[in-house]
Design brief:
By secondary structure, the protein is of the alpha/beta class. The chain has two domains: 222 residues, 2-enoyl-CoA Hydratase, Chain A, domain 1 (Alpha-Beta Complex), CATH 3.90.226; 121 residues, 2-enoyl-CoA Hydratase, Chain A, domain 1. The chain has twelve helices and 14 strands. Strands 1-2-3-5-7-9 form a six-stranded mixed beta sheet, sandwiched between helices. The chain has a three-stranded parallel beta sheet with strand order 4-6-8, with helices on one face. The longest helix has 25 residues. The relative contact order is 0.10.
């Protein structure tokens, strides 16, 4: 089964994205029967790769399509459960390769939430009602602010020791100690307590930022959203109407030996070269990671006009304070990090008519090996790899 990383809010089965002015609600409502593979049910808002694919898509759309959004509220549509983390039966039935790539994509998705907060000013608030355990708490940890309902049963937990967590270092304990500055002795206790921490103790231990009783929870959340809206610190140039661009479907086909772009490039919206090539490259990397695990060597080649590619980079540099240009550059950074963290042998081949310059040169620099032909081939001029400082 090939895994498709392209989706759209109208196709979501596990999330609802509701945007109203400067605030968006990202609601987790996992469909138990819609797992990516057969053999397990996604009970208690547990997740598999399919759930995270939708989450990553929503985060991207919030940045490109809704630049006016200042606060994103992450919450659950289920009663008495926020998120139970990664689905255990899914992990038990997965190959080692799939588990490794699943965990890698999961952490990259949470990193993209923090990236949106740092660079786009879109702050995430986790409104936790019910059990928030394991990977579910890791999802909350990726947010800027956590509010926990104090109803006697809701709790946060990261039971690494009693429940034999798969990869506790992919974001859980790291964010507890490094991001939330929880004392190491308390972190040790926290990861050994299966039932988790509730109420005021969770605040005292810095595991959450606020608690509120059931009758005050919605009002507390509203006030917190207003406070974050008031502190909105985005300094780049938003359009007068704060209108974003629509991310359409990538027009590509996948054959047994190649991914081929079938679209003609146009100079607007999601068809702009800087956006489209980054999205296609990201999609290709994810496809190869999950669907072609036996391919151990990836070759990168480029073709094009070096002067045109550098002119593109110059244009972005000249307009670097515009919100869309910033999102293009930040997206490129995320794609290049994904390449850099891919466990394959990466080779860049610099041949006649290659275009490894500027931003594209970063692909070569992320490779394990770079091979460049010397001299002139078939009456074609010489070539080189270069990057402007």
């Amino acid at each position: 089964m090939r895994i498709d990383f392209q989706t759209h809010p109208e196709k979501y089965r596990h999330w609802r994205l509701e945007v109203g002015g400067e605030t968006a609600n990202l609601i987790m409502d996992v469909d138990e029967s819609s797992g990516l593979f057969s053999g397990y049910e996604l009970k208690l808002n547990s997740y598999d790769l399919g759930v995270d694919i939708e989450l990553y898509d929503a985060i991207q759309r919030l940045r490109f399509e809704y630049p006016q959004v200042r606060v994103v509220v992450l919450r659950s549509a289920k009663d008495r459960v926020f998120c139970a983390g990664a689905n255990i039966k899914m992990l038990a039935g997965s190959s080692h390769v799939h588990k490794a790539n699943f965990c890698k994509f999961t952490n990259e998705t949470r990193n993209s939430m923090e990236d949106a907060s740092k660079y786009s000013g879109q702050k995430y608030i986790a409104a936790v009602q019910g059990a928030c355990a394991g990977g579910g708490y890791e999802l909350a940890l990726a947010c800027d602010h956590i509010i926990l309902i104090d109803d006697g049963s809701s709790s946060v937990s990261l039971p690494e020791i009693p429940l034999l967590a798969v990869l506790p270092g992919t974001g859980g304990l790291t964010r507890v100690t490094d991001k939330r500055k929880v004392r190491r002795d308390r972190a040790d206790i926290f990861c050994s307590v299966e039932e988790g921490i509730k109420g005021k103790k969770a605040v005292d231990w810095r595991l959450v930022d606020q608690v509120a009783v059931s009758s005050d929870f919605d009002e507390c959340l509203r006030k917190t959203v207003d406070q974050f809206n008031a502190r909105f610190d985005r300094t780049d140039e938003l359009d007068s109407k704060n209108q974003g661009i629509t991310l359409g479907a990538l027009n590509r086909t996948i054959s047994d030996d190649a991914l081929q772009d079938m679209a003609t490039l146009v100079e607007q919206g999601d068809q702009y070269w800087g956006i489209r090539v980054a999205r296609e490259l990201d999609d290709a990397v994810l496809h190869l990671r999950l669907n072609e695990p036996e391919i151990g060597i990836w070759q990168f080649k480029t073709r094009g006009d070096q002067h045109g590619a550098m002119a593109h980079d110059d244009f972005l540099h000249q307009h670097q304070n515009h919100w869309l240009v910033k999102e293009i550059l930040f997206n490129w950074a995320r794609v290049l990090r994904r390449i850099d963290l891919t466990s394959r042998s990466l080779i860049s081949l610099i041949e006649p008519e290659s275009c490894f310059v500027g931003t594209l040169a970063e692909i070569a620099f992320a490779s394990d090996r770079i091979y460049m032909a010397a001299g002139e081939f078939e009456d074609k001029p010489g070539f080189s790899v270069s990057q402007k400082p």
